[in-house]
Amino acid sequence: MTEYLTNYRKYILKCLENEGCDFGQLLEYHTEKLHQFQHERFIHLIVMVLFALCTVITILAIALSEKLMLIPLAVLLLVLLVPYIKHYFFLENTVQLLYKDYDAIYKKVHGFSQEDLK
User: Fold this and answer.
1) SS3 sequence, 43-112?
2) Which of UniProt's keywords are assigned here (predicted)?
């Protein structure tokens, strides 16, 4: 997903530079893609939160029950949680950049955007 999102953003930026582009059609396409990326981001948020809860519960179980055999599970969950958080934040930040790209496309189609209201 990281590579796909990165390549998609490069594609949108190239389209924005190309004055011969059909920005109306690009706006429709980008809107559909934004919905897909928002869904992906939401699913990753749910999984990340559940994964973090499992990690916290495992650490609490170790602290309260003093069962040392749970330590490898806690370490495994932490090792997997860190890259998952990193990936989620990549999704979050990239989708926010895509919102700005949406505004730029919208301005090319309709002649105004949110930025003009400031």
Assistant:
1) HHHHHHHHHHHHHHHHHHHHHHHCCHHHHHHHHHHHHHHHHHHHHHHHHHHHHHHHHHHHHHHHHHHHCC
2) Membrane, Transmembrane, Transmembrane helix
CA–CA distance, 88 with 43 (Å, rounded to integer):
10
pTM: 0.81
Q: Measure the CA angle with vertex 1, ends 25 and 77; round to 5°.
A: 150
Task: Write the pLDDT tens digit of every residue in 87-99.
Answer: 999 999 999 999 9
E strand or H helix that includes residue 1? none
pLDDT band at 117 (very low <50, low <70, confident <90, very high): low
- The span from the CA of 104 to the CA of 19, in Å, is 13
